[in-house]
Design brief:
By secondary structure, this protein is α+β, with helices and mostly antiparallel strands. It is built from 18 helices and 14 strands. The strands form 5 sheets. The protein has a 5-stranded mixed β-sheet with strand order 3-4-5-2-8. The chain is globular and about 90 Å long. InterPro entries: HGLS (IPR009770), YdcJ_bac-like (IPR047869).
Length: 465
């Protein structure tokens, strides 16, 4: 086996993880098959336009995974493993505030950040960290027991971490070491056959099913792997037609006639999976847990801070109208709000500074010796440049929480009279020993690099705006 670079390690890890998860959760394989069918049909129907937000090769190979860990130390170790694959922590998500159910986690996503790396393989992993210090969920006694339990387990072996550190430092691994690293990295996310302490698991489950999934077992596992689809509404219909029980809604923006923005997600419901349970008297019985589900996503254009503020405002309007008109489908309400307030074309999104694009000189631009304009809007309008949308590579806390919530068997408990413990991106950066990157800054850098190139090619001395 030849030496593997970081992106090759990333691609191999994603493929092997997908194969493993398909063996553990057969409905996931159905989801991947239906996604591929839908993508092929959309490509036939729409041609090149279907690849506006990524080549069909990228879209078909694309996955995002989700895992959950219990302590900052474990999260720091996860960061080392994904760092070996050229993946960095991007964004801070507080799911405690985004869900009506008890979801006591904060999250980040590990992913490539360079445009070329994303095009090679955009594998990303949404990674949630339990918050035992939040008194709304855990009283002092339970927090103490939980932290002791978490401190006593080892999720990642020293051998795996050493290989990860070598891959990060050298940006590659020789064949034998690469094979060993991939084997250990996939193995650690398999569902463990070790019996679950039934009493301890149920104690945590009364607080939150998510807390039990993280802190009620001595291992971690992949919670879901998510293929990307070009028409999520069609996929939802086809999965339902195949008898797969889907959650009630598609999370995120509605289906509408304008540009796809941000992220739309749905999933099939968490399945009851057999697990060995150890009872208080020490005997092992057969039980079942519902913690893993099959998610699928459709990605749109990345919005700027202004665009995101508008999106959040529109969500609030939809919430208000839906509460006033409970008999009207939420999707119908949302579509009406979107069509009234959100620009209906990519050029309008670009002109109003609501979405991120890269800019490229047109071969057929004016060649009559005229001086090019110095604003992006005029360069676009006069045909000097074309705008290519930047795909949204990140997540939406409300949508993530909605997926979690739709797959929980109970609401859990939350003491709203207590003050929640504060967590933010700076805290998370300190906890894992590396900077949690700002997604807006990453998108802006892509846009600005393209504008600097355009300005240079046109001989403009001023910065384009």
């Amino acid at each position: 086996m030849a030496t593997l670079s970081q992106w090759q390690l990333r691609a191999a890890f994603a493929a092997r993880l997908s194969e493993m998860y398909g063996q553990e959760v057969p409905a996931y394989t159905t989801l991947v098959d239906v996604s591929r069918e839908v993508n092929e049909d959309v490509l036939r129907a729409r041609g090149a336009d279907a690849e506006r937000l990524g080549s069909i090769g990228r879209v078909t190979a694309e996955r995002h995974g989700a895992i959950r860990v219990g302590t900052p130390r474990e999260l720091g170790q996860v960061a080392r493993i994904f760092g070996a694959l050229g993946m960095h922590p991007v964004g801070f998500y507080d799911l405690r505030e985004a869900a009506a159910s008890a979801v006591p986690v904060v999250s980040t996503a590990f992913r490539p950040v360079d445009g070329e790396e994303l095009a090679r393989n955009p594998f990303r992993v949404f990674t949630s960290l339990l918050t035992p210090a939040d008194p709304r969920f855990f009283d002092a006694e339970l927090r103490s027991r939980l932290e002791a339990f978490l401190a006593d387990r080892e999720l990642f072996s020293p051998e795996l971490l050493a290989l990860a550190d070598r891959a990060s430092a050298e940006r590659e691994l020789p064949g034998a070491e690469a094979e060993r690293f991939l084997h250990l990295a996939v193995e650690v996310f398999e569902l463990s056959a070790e019996p679950v302490d039934k009493g301890w698991y149920e104690t945590l489950e009364r607080i939150s099913a998510v807390a039990a999934d993280i802190g009620g077992v001595r291992s971690t596992h992949i919670n879901h792997l998510t293929p990307r689809v070009l028409d999520i509404d069609e996929l939802y219909r086809r999965m339902t037609d195949r008898g797969v029980e889907m959650i009630d809604t598609i999370q995120g923006p509605p289906a509408w006639k304008g540009p796809d923005v941000l992220l739309r997600q749905t999933s099939f419901r968490a399945l009851a999976e057999p697990r060995a349970m150890r009872t208080p008297n020490g005997s092992v019985i057969s039980g079942a847990l519902r913690v893993r589900f099959g998610e699928v996503e459709a990605r749109g254009i990345a919005l700027t801070r202004e665009g995101r503020a508008l999106y959040d405002e529109l969500l609030g309007q939809v919430d208000e109208k839906a509460s006033q008109n409970p008999s009207v489908p939420r999707g119908e309400i949302a579509r009406g709000v979107w069509e009234r307030r959100l620009p209906g074309s990519e050029p309008e999104l670009a002109a109003k500074g609501l979405a991120y694009f890269t800019y490229h000189l047109r071969p057929e631009r004016p060649r009559d010796g005229s001086r090019p304009p110095t604003t992006v809007g005029e360069l676009l309008r006069q045909g000097w440049v074309r705008a290519e949308p930047i795909v949204y590579e990140d997540f939406l806390p409300r949508s993530a929480a909605g997926i979690f919530q739709s797959n929980l068997s109970g609401e859990g408990t939350r003491r709203s009279d207590q003050q929640g413990t504060a967590y933010d991106a700076d805290w998370l950066s300190g906890a894992i020993g590396r900077d949690v990157l700002d997604p807006y800054a990453l998108y802006a850098r892509q846009r600005n690099d393209s504008l600097a190139h355009v300005a240079h090619e046109l001989g403009l001395t001023d910065t384009l705006s």
